[in-house]
Amino acid sequence: MRDRSAPGTLDLATGGLLLGYARVSTDAQDLTNQREQLAAVGCSRIFAEKVTGTRRDRPELARLLDHLRPGDVVTVTRLDRLARSTRDLLDIAERIQAAGAGLRSLAEPWADTTSPAGRMVLTVFAGIAEFERELIRERTKHGREAAKARGVKFGPRPTLTPAQIEHARELIDRDGRTVKEAAVLLGVHRSTLYRALERSEEVSRAEARRRGAFIEDALTEADALAAGPDERQEEGQQVAFLDDEGPADPPPFITTTNARKLYDLRPSETVADAAARKARENESLPTK
């Protein structure tokens, strides 16, 4: 803390001490020129450091701000020695003003908060900085909305990829594994796999509605052929297909497994072709 009885050059306008701040970005640079300029205008104490201006944790600047008393004037050779951005400059100027002190730049005479004109200029700067922040927020908002419209998803990356979710379904439906076993094989917690399977099911149903599915869980011939080979129906369930070549009163859905069992479905053969072939074979069988 500062000794109130310590001698020093006083500012004629405010009656407070003139305190200088000097900074260079690297150790290879020299602070001598800044020190000389600050001493020439009467700074009784100079806080100097070698640190990049982009860092917010500058020890000497923190000491200077803690050292301030009402009426003191912080003096810098140029504003870029104090801050590297408008927002940073305004934040530091606000802290200086809160301490009842002023800010003065030797290279920019208009940046003198001890005068009404200087305070007005910084007020205008603050308005411009706020306007820039609003523009950035608006551009960010519109950019996110446009990205969402294109299907871009925000947030953390999903733990399981669509291929892993499909593999988990095969392990559960075809191989008879439990969800816990499938989760262990994929290296995730079973609750994670449960959520992924539920989300995948919701997406599948939404896609079915978008394509015009008219019966819950109904399968077209193409969907039946694309379905997994381990889909099972309850014993005694009738099997048919939902196309124009099927029976007049078709049941709700058909599965590939039952089609293979009933019609001896052959490779590259459609369900309709297999049914017609099976009918011909049955007709050719001798009657008892």
UniProtKB/TrEMBL annotation:
Q: Which GO terms describe its biological process?
A: DNA integration
Q: Which InterPro entries match?
A: Homeodomain-like_sf, Recombinase_CS, Resolv_N, Resolvase-like_N_sf, SSR_resolvase
- The record places domain Resolvase/invertase-type recombinase catalytic at 17-151
Q: Give the source's domain of life in one word.
A: Bacteria
Could you tell me which residues belong to the region Disordered? 226-256
Pfam families reported in the protein's UniProt record: HTH_23 (PF13384), Resolvase (PF00239)
Identify which residues the record assigns to the active site: S25 (o-(5'-phospho-dna)-serine intermediate)
Keyword Endoplasmic reticulum included in the entry's annotation? no
User: What PROSITE patterns does the database record attribute to this sequence?
Assistant: RECOMBINASES_1 (PS00397), RECOMBINASES_3 (PS51736)
Keywords in alphabetical order, please. Answer: DNA integration, DNA invertase, DNA recombination, DNA-binding
Single annotated GO MF: DNA binding
Please state which protein family the record places this protein in: Belongs to the site-specific recombinase resolvase family.
Q: What is this protein called?
A: Excisionase family DNA binding protein
**Which organism's genome codes for this protein?**
Tepidicella xavieri
